[in-house]
Amino acid sequence: MRVLVVEDDKALGLFLQKGLKLEGHDVDWVGDGDAAIRHAEAHRPGLMVLDLGLPRRDGTEVLHEMRARYPDCSVLVLTGRGMVDERIRCLNSGADDFLQKPFSFSELTARCRAVVRRREQFADPVLRYGAVEMNRMTRHVRRDGYALELTGKEFALLEFMLNRRGECCSRSELLREVWQMSPEAGTNVVDVYINYLRRKLAGAHPDGDSSVPVIETVRGSGYRLLNGRKPVGSACLVAERAASAVGA
Fold first, then answer.
1. In sequence order, what are the residues at sequence separation of 6 or more whose Cβ sits closer than 8 angstroms to the Cβ of residue 126?
2. Alpha-carbon distance 222 to 199, whole Å?
């Protein structure tokens, strides 16, 4: 799981980062509220371990922002503030759990696991964006109701892009998150699999209708899913048809 530790005490932040990495997570640490929001926007953590007493932007503000923009991210609040009213306020603001300092690291990791289990238990297994629908339980994928047969890596790539809901996914991000490869790796595997997906999405209709593109190339940035409406004069249509031609 991708975890973001937000803690202004550098020694504690680095300790938590190292400990959670040893638990098998992909962990980053930042020291202020503004950096937390920027990092969440860029990397979309599955869990945020959030201190309340932060510089630049208070932890409570960060919590409100996370709930408004990234409701799928679980938030475990850490604080030295021991008042019952403070704990109630955090939970009512959207925190998934609350841990008062000082705390046991083993309790922290147990609470992290419990938070994620609760989230996964009630998460909708179906992802939808535009014309594309994916059931992560049955591993069925459809475009406009027509079934697609995807390989494991094609499925993982499309799942990641569906979770981003139309936001641009950079090649380096896709390499890191889908292939677990270094962004500096000299490979065109992302472009190759994007073309595989394009062909399968275009061929989902029995009549082979590929006039409405699904994946757009964002020049110099990466790729994003479209919502299914045909963009007039869009460069992505050219890219979609070119990709289909290459695979012909």
1. 133, 134, 135, 136
2. 18
Q: What is the pLDDT of residue 205?
A: 61
SS (H, E, C) 77-125: EEECCCCHHHHHHHHHCCCCEEEECCCCHHHHHHHHHHHHHHHHHHCCC
Q: Contact 77/99 with Cβ under 8 angstroms?
A: yes
d(CA 191, CA 175): 10
Q: How far apart are CA 235 and CA 248, in angstroms?
A: 20
| Span 183-227, pLDDT tens digits | 777 788 999 999 999 989 887 666 555 556 789 999 888 999 988
Pick the CATH number of 126-247 from 1.10.300.10, 3.40.1280.10, 1.25.40.10, 1.10.10.10: 1.10.10.10
Q: How would you label 127-142 residue by residue, b for 16+ Cβ within 10 Å and e otherwise?
A: bebbbbbbeeeeeebe
DSSP 128: E
Can you tell me the distance from the alpha carbon of 191 to that of 187, in angstroms, rounded to the nearest whole number?
9
Please give the single-letter amino acid code of residue 196.
Y
